[in-house]
Write a structure and sequence with these properties.
Layout: H1 3-9, H2 17-23, H3 26-41, H4 49-73, H5 75-78, H6 96-117, H7 120-141, H8 148-152, H9 154-157, H10 159-168, H11 173-195, H12 198-204, H13 209-212, H14 215-235, H15 244-266, H16 269-274, H17 278-306
């Protein structure tokens, strides 16, 4: 972020509570909270409800801290992109220095408190996740490579592993597959968004795949990653946290997701522009349902198993 940009943003009025909440990216945080909670609850080790509550709270705070640090660094491009111009910093409600201090304070608080509430392995994992999102993705990958969302997607895939680590103090094949489910889902999810938001990324100088290689290549990549995603989603069904409920949901969801990706792959820009990218927007919306439904099915399996009814 340039000095000139910083000086303009620093001339901000006193921020309200809602402005600081917005810095935490609450919509993104909801995904972090939910997947971390599922990772914790499906683990084979019972955790006291109070520890569950505290752990998920601190993981959420850590996720919010990452969002604040992201907004601090990206304030210059947020001011250019239409969908981000209303964020607290470009809107002049919070200064960059305030966002930086807020993000760093919450980062430290979340890591220390998770270590005290659960275990230090999970806390270290949370610290690494914050670092990965704020530094590796936001400061390095996002503006340097069209593969930004592929590699950077790991940050959003870590929460269920952190939840699992809260319960078990380690890593298991189940937590790795939960990670891979989100990791492989992230590129088609965001590239679908980029298909109908291309001008925003181009104007901001962000090398999204649609900008550097065009929409046709992006459609090809969406199909490839969707096909690669399906085996990981189905593999979860045959682990200790899977079962017939999850597998049924996974088969249906992946058939629909692959069908949607094939539909996008077959479209050209004339078709997309004619219907105002309706199919791309529909695919993006379904991608959200896809991920939440998989983790909901895992949670359902865990609930059934607690009554001696779930599993294979």
């Amino acid at each position: 972020m340039s000095d000139a940009t910083t000086s303009v943003f620093d001339q901000s009025p006193e921020a309200g509570f809602g402005d600081y909440v917005a810095l935490l990216k609450p919509r993104v945080m909801s995904l972090v909270v939910f997947t971390a909670l599922v990772g914790l609850l499906v683990a084979p080790v019972a955790v006291h409800p109070f520890v569950v509550f505290c752990s998920v709270l601190f993981i959420a705070i850590g996720g919010g801290a990452s969002g604040a640090l992201n907004m601090w660094w990206d304030a210059d491009i947020d001011a250019v992109m239409k969908r981000t111009q209303g964020r607290p910093i470009p809107a002049g409600k919070v200064s960059p220095s305030e966002a930086l201090g807020f993000g760093l304070a919450l980062s430290g608080l979340s890591v220390v408190m998770l270590g005290l509430a659960a275990n230090w392995f999970a806390a270290g994992f949370l610290a690494f996740t914050i670092f990965f999102y704020a530094v590796v993705y936001t400061m390095w990958l996002k503006r340097s490579t069209p593969q930004n969302i592929v590699i950077g997607g790991a940050a959003g895939a870590f929460p269920p592993m952190i939840g699992w680590a809260v319960a078990t103090g380690g890593i298991g094949i189940e937590s790795i597959l939960m990670f891979m489910l989100i990791f492989m889902w992230t590129p088609p999810h965001f590239w679908a968004l980029a298909l109908f938001m291309k001008s925003d990324y181009k104007d901001a100088g962000v090398p999204m795949l649609t900008v550097t290689h065009g929409r046709k290549v992006t459609r090809n990549h969406i199909l490839v990653y969707t096909l690669l995603l399906a085996p990981f989603a189905l593999a979860l069904g045959v682990t200790s946290i899977g079962g017939p409920v999850y597998m049924t949901a996974a088969v249906i969801l992946n058939v629909l997701f692959v069908k949607g990706a094939i539909g996008l792959w077959r479209r050209d820009e004339a078709m997309a522009e004619a219907d105002k990218y309706r199919a791309e927007k529909k695919f993006f919306g379904f991608s959200l349902v896809y991920l939440f439904a998989h983790f909901t099915a895992l949670l359902a399996e865990a609930g059934l198993k607690s009554f001696g009814m779930g599993g294979w």
